[in-house]
Amino acid sequence: MPRRQNHKLCIHEKHHQARYELQSHRGVQPAAVMEELPSTSSHLEDNSQSSSATVSNSTFQGSSEAPSTTSTFSTTSDTTSDEEDTSQDEEDSRSSDVSSSTENTYSDTLNSMTSLLEEFLLHKYKMKQPIMKEDMLMIIHPKYHNRFAEILKTASEHIEAVFAVDLKEVDSTIHSYDLVSKLNLPNNGRVWDGRGLPKTGLLMTVLGVIFVKGNCAAEEDIWKFLNMMRVYAGRKHFIYGEPRKLITKDFVTMKYLEYRQVANSDPPCYEFLWGPRAHVETSKMKVLEFLAKVNDTVPSAFSSQYEEALRDEEERARATVPARPGTTLTSRHVPWPGLAASPTPTEDQDF
């Protein structure tokens, strides 16, 4: 295969994998770890049964109408009437099918354009290029430009739920946007120098599991959850590289995670806690909101964790006192111990 054709195939494969990663991360509901997440299946069942009952009642009512008390119509006219009714029913059915087909096509087109826009936004982020509104509109068919705000909102929400980055307008005069990491990770969430996709989503996920497991999670529970997301220790991931190093080394060095041996464990077992930078740059409520988006639910669905997060918010509010000018310490002033000495992995250029 010619080199140029092989390069195009590689690019197509990476774009396909990016879409697969987005789809596989959305709506992940690992019940083994998050036992308190309510299931929506019962609501779907109720709706299904309600719909079935409505159809049954409608059919029953239609079939039990009182017969006519007069017999002035002949057999021929009855047959003709039945044929006309049948013809009208078929015409109504065809009209309904066409309408339904049109709606489905319209919905599929919107979903397709949303997926394309997601890929475009991630590509611009990875290449460290500005995201311009005029460029985004070129991806969307002119017929749907009036739905641009809706498509952009959906695409950005999908990306936020996977990568924990927010789409923000950085220049309103030229309508320039950027994807900004929810945490103050180096290189706007890429962790290492160079290009690549954000690693913030993985960190927020680990922080979420720690919170849900009582603010201290066994390493086994962390990997049990991540395996449900198709993230495996020792196996290079399209977005995160080698996740074990990222979690047990890099995030620990950056003080986002604490990784320690369980006391008196033999053979040695390890557990994770929030690191000091995590306490500074995020909160239990923010992490819970991220988990809720990943699971397509609301924070209050995690009942006990939601109550704890509310108490944490109240404590933070009470602890916040007006500081004199020049005395405020923000997360950006916290040094990065050991980070400068860490080698920049060349494999990050591939994801």
Outline the fold blueprint.
Elements: H1 3-25, H2 41-63, H3 75-126, E1 131-132, H4 133-139, H5 148-163, E2 165-171, E3 176-181, H6 200-212, E4 217-218, H7 219-228, H8 243-253, E5 257-261, E6 270-274, H9 276-281, H10 284-294, H11 303-319
Antiparallel strand pairs: 1-3, 2-3, 4-6, 5-6
Gist of the model:
This protein has 351 residues and is mainly alpha-helical. The protein is 54% helix and 8% strand. The longest helix has 52 residues, at 75-126.
Textual characterization of the structure:
A hairpin with a 4-residue loop joins strand 2 and strand 3. By secondary structure, this protein is mainly alpha-helical. The chain contains eleven helices and six strands. Helices cover 54% and strands 8% of the residues. The two termini are 24 Å apart. Helix 3 crosses helix 5, helix 6 crosses helix 7 and helix 6 crosses helix 10. The strands form two sheets. The chain has a three-stranded antiparallel β-sheet. A three-stranded antiparallel β-sheet has the order 4-6-5.
